[in-house]
Amino acid sequence: CLTYHSVIYSRQVSILESAFAEDPLPSKRTKERLAEETGFTQKRIQIWFQNRRAKEKVCLLTEPFFVVIHC
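Above: the chain sequence. Below: its structure as tokens.
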């Protein structure tokens, strides 16, 4: 089964990361603006934010564990 993966360019990532730093739960209006700026669909923007929040959560949960091991 082949899946399609879109290519995300560094400019698009920096736009999304900046928006995430400002608000990890953007409004519909913000998602519309980001979709226009990046060329992605609003659904793709929504999924990117969901994945980014999950990534941050995992990093926050595992960070203390690594600090203890490295001490």
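Helices lie at 10-22, 28-38, 42-70.
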